[in-house]
Amino acid sequence: MKTLRWEDGALKLIDQTRLPLEFAVVECRTYQEVADAIRVMIVRGAPAIGVAAAFGFALGALQSKARDRGELLAELSGVTETLRQTRPTAVNLFWALQRMNAVAQSADGDLAEMRRAILSEAHEMAREDEERNRCIGAFGAELVRDGDTILTHCNAGALATVDYGTALGVVRAAHEQGKRIHVLVDETRPFLQGARLTAWEMEQAGIPATLITDNMAGHFMSRGRIDVVVVGADRIAANGDVANKIGTYSVAVLARENGIPFYVAAPTSTVDLSLKSGQEIPIEERSESEVLYINGKRIAPEGISAAHPAFDVTPNRYVTAIVTEQGVVRSPYQFVTKGVSE
C-alpha cells in the first residue's frame, strides 16, 4: 500500500480523512494543494509528511515560470515557506525541505536540469523511506516474542509513511516472521487515527487486532493483557525525549508503572539535533472543532470550548528503547543521533 505516489505529473495521496468508510485518492497538481493536504491531514504521519512536502517542492519547481536560476531559487523560497507553515511538530517536514533546497542550490546545468534533479531527489526520498521502514521493522521485530500482545497508539503504519510503517512496521515484520501476535489498538482521540487507520491496516494485513478506547489501556496493562507497547514519533530531541500523538505520554507512564517495555520506532530523520530536550519541541494546537465534533456531529454542549494540543512529549526515562533503521538504541540516548546530520 503506497500512501503517496507520483503519477502523470501529479502527487496522488490516499485521503486518510475518509478511511475506513471510503477509500479515495486525492490528486495534487500544485504545491499549494500539497500544503492543504498536509494541513487538513489528508496525508499525515511524520515520514509521509516529509516525502509529500518533497514532492510539493518539486511541483513548485516544475510549475515555475522562472527565466533563470536566481528567479527559480527565489520562488522556491516561497514554496518552502508555504509548506513549512503546515504542521509545526513533525520534524521530517523541515528535514525534507532542507534537503530539497540543498539539491536545488547545488544542481548544475540549466533550469530543465535543475527541475530534473529536484524531482529525482523527491523520488529518492520516497524510496529511502520505504527502505528505512523495513529496516526498522526487522530490528524491532526482534523485541517482540511469539505470543505477545502489542499495544499501539495513533497510526504509525504504512499510512503514516510511504509504505510499510514504523511502529506498525515492527508489528508487520513480527507477523511476517510467523510470530503469533495480537494488537490492541488505542482509538486515539480526537482524530481517531487508531480506530480509523491502524485498525483498517491490521485488517488489510490479516493481523489479529482488537480496538480499545484510550482510557482502557491501564486496565489491560494491570491485568497482564499487554506485553509490549510500540509507538511512532513525530520528533525526537537529542536527549531521547519523544514527541508523539497526544496521549502517548500517558501510555508511557502506565507502561512504566506496570513493568511493560515501551518502544519508539522512528527513522533517524525524526531526530532533531538542534533541540536538547523535549521541552523545546513545538506542540501543534489544532482546531477545537476536532474535539467538539465527530463526523460532523457535535458531541458537546453549545458554548463549551475545547483544548486540542495534537502532541505530547514523553521524557526519555520512560522510553525502553528507540528503534531506528540503524538499530535499537537504549539509554543514554545521545548516540541515537549517530549518522544524522544537523
Layout: helices, strands, pairs:
Layout lengths: L3 E4 L2 E5 L10 E4 L2 H9 L6 H18 L5 H16 L6 H16 L4 H31 L7 E4 L14 H10 L5 E5 L6 H13 L3 E4 L4 H6 L5 E4 L3 E3 L4 E4 L2 H10 L4 E4 L5 E2 L16 H4 E2 L2 E2 L12 E4 L6 E4 L2 E3 L13
Parallel strand pairs: 4-5, 4-7, 5-6, 7-10, 8-11, 10-15
Antiparallel strand pairs: 1-2, 2-3, 8-9, 9-14, 12-13, 15-16
CATH topology of the largest domain: Rossmann fold
Share of helix, binned: 25-40%
CATH class of the largest domain: Alpha Beta
Query: Which shape, going by the Cα principal axes?
Result: globular
Distance between the termini: 31 Å
| CATH architectural type of the largest domain | 3-Layer(aba) Sandwich
Order of helices and strands: EEEHHHHHEHEHEHEEEHEEHEEEEE
User: What is the overall pLDDT average?
Assistant: 95
Strand order of the largest sheet: 6-5-4-7-10-15-16
Structural class: alpha/beta
Instruction: Enumerate how many helices there are, as a single number.
Output: 10
Strand content: 15-25%
Total beta strand runs: 16
What can be said about the biggest beta sheet? Answer: 7 strands, mixed
Contiguous low-pLDDT stretches (5 residues minimum) are 335-342
Instruction: Please name the fourth-level CATH homologous superfamily of the largest domain.
Output: Translation initiation factor eif-2b, domain 2
Radius of gyration: 20 Å
Number of domains: 2
